[in-house]
Specification:
This protein is mostly beta strands.
Amino acid sequence: MTPQAKQELTKKLRADFDTPIFQFTGKPDESIPFTFKYTGDIPIHSIQPGCGCTEAILDKKTNTITGHLKLDPLKNYGVQPGQVSTFISKNISVYFVDAQEWFIVNEKGNRVNNPNKVHVALSVQGNVMFN
């Protein structure tokens, strides 16, 4: 697949979600629920949250991704003195069924993730309020 074809397919797949960005406002002790609905025709293979604070589950029957972003009450999220809120963004990678191998061997002979594997990054983002 050419880079241009991959870019066009990724754009189409991203548009097949009800929204690629779930926005929220929350407090540091909250668990923020989110949902993404996929209506495209290329099956989702798997999903991978970007970090441990984001739990996500794929229901392949309904093509729905649901989960929670757990905001840590002990974390200041980079807030400076006098600041009342801060913006955070967490990603979920969605991988699709395609002909690309999951891994390739690079020029050094190491097994690495295949950069040509088709995927879309969804985002859970918003403001964490500290008062």
